[in-house]
Amino acid sequence: MDLLIVILIVVAVLVVAGVGFVVSRGRGAPEAPAGEPAVAPPEAADVDVAIEPEATAPVEEAVLEAPVTFVSRLGKARSALSGYLGSIRSRSVDAQTWDELEEALILADLGVETTTRVLDDVREQARVDGVTDPSVAIEMVKSRLKDELGGRDVSLDANGSPAVWLFVGVNGVGKTTTIGKLGAREVGAGRTVVMAAGDTFRAAAGEQLELWADRSGAQIVRGAEGADPSSVIFDGIAHAAAIGADLVMADTAGRLHTKSNLMEELRKVKRVAEKGEGVVAEVLLVLDATTGQNGLIQARQFTEAVDVTGVVLTKLDGSAKGGIVMAIQSDLGIPVKLVGLGEGAHDLIEFDADQFVEALFETV
Fold it and tell me: In degrees, to the nearest 5, what angle opens at C-alpha 164 toward C-alphas 298 and 216?
């Protein structure tokens, strides 16, 4: 009897020990003694290495391939018009129809002068044609806007050995980021790009541009902080010519357009750039779309100083003032060549008048 009890006790001890062993293995590595670092089990490290690429690669690929369209990115500008358009479509064409269209277009920042001219012409044509259907009247407005916005060359001139693109504008509009995005696009198209860090006054501007150059595969020429911007850009052009580069993208300090001495310095930058071995093929004014009519004032000032050849309108996706595109082109005759519809490098695209107008008037 005593022997049987001893055997039962031994069996019970072995079973308990076995269960404890299984539980410990299931929980992972045992805790490290106090003062010693814990060590991850080899199985966990192997799993992380094997699974991570499979889990993240499809997501990254989807983001890169996501189409960028005016319709998908102009939600704020479109919503500013949608209430007016809904009201207009609910009745026959009358005097209130034209009043509401005028309010809608001015709210979208087309500008009073541009809005008045467009609607006066369309209203007279609608009267002659006997238009009573509001949808037809709206289509007539859209057609007129497309005519005024379209028909312009939005390509960027890359002729020169090297071609030089100067980027100008006030602080905070996105000049350096625009250069980075365009640099990535041009390198991807097979061009050799040199970036010249001519903004020597803003803290970290050179570092920011250098980061973009590294990302895009471009070269960069920098000067000391506070150095003469003209000399840095001149050196950048000389370097590009020496290595046979195709394109120089020159950043400039964010000028306050109300300060005549700073605008004069910008004129100097352009004069010095033109003395180099390259050709100043583009002077691109970068504007923030969210500033609306203030952007139009800036455009006038910069055009007088350096003969702007085109406008890059950033942050258009975050603004309800998309009509500033119309005001810039109608009042100044300067084409909007590129628009920013997001934060990614692929979100800087050529301006398309037809797609832009359709996106603004699409029913939400």
Answer: 95
Q: pLDDT by residue (tens digit) across 12-27?
A: 544 444 433 333 333 3
For residue 323, give Cα distances in angstroms to 22, 85, 96, 122, 135.
70, 16, 21, 17, 20
Name the CATH superfamily, with its identifier, for domain 72-149: SRP54, nucleotide-binding domain (1.20.120.140)
SS (H, E, C) the chain: CHHHHHHHHHHHHHHHHHHHHHHHHHHCCCCCCCCCCCCCCHHHHHHHHHHHHHHHHHHHHHHHHCCCCHHHHCHHHHHHHHHHHHHHHCCCCCHHHHHHHHHHHHHCCCCHHHHHHHHHHHHHHHHHHCCCCHHHHHHHHHHHHHHHHCCCCCCCCCCCCCEEEEEECCCCCCHHHHHHHHHHHHHHCCCCEEEEECCCCCCCHHHHHHHHHHHHCCEEECCCCCCCHHHHHHHHHHHHHHHCCCEEEEECCCCCCCCHHHHHHHHHHHHHHHHCCCEEEEEEEEEEHHHCHHHHHHHHHHHHHHCCCEEEEECHHHCCCCCHHHHHHHHHCCCEEEEECCCCHHHEEECCHHHHHHHHHCCC
Q: Provide the residue ranges of all domains of the chain, joining segments of one domain with +.
A: 72-149, 163-308
Spatial separation of the C-alpha atoms in residues 263 and 43, rounded to whole Å = 64
Mean pLDDT of 146-162: 92
Asked if domains 72-149 and 163-308 share a fold, the reply is no
Q: Which of 229, 193, 235 is nearest to 214 (CA)?
A: 193
Packing angle of the helix pair 293-306, 324-332 (nearest 10 deg)? 30
**Is it the case that residue 285 has pLDDT exceeding 90?**
yes
CATH code assigned to 163-308: 3.40.50.300
pLDDT, position 257: 55
CA–CA separation, 104 and 301 (whole Å): 28
* pLDDT tens column, 49-82: 222 232 323 333 333 445 678 887 877 777 777 7
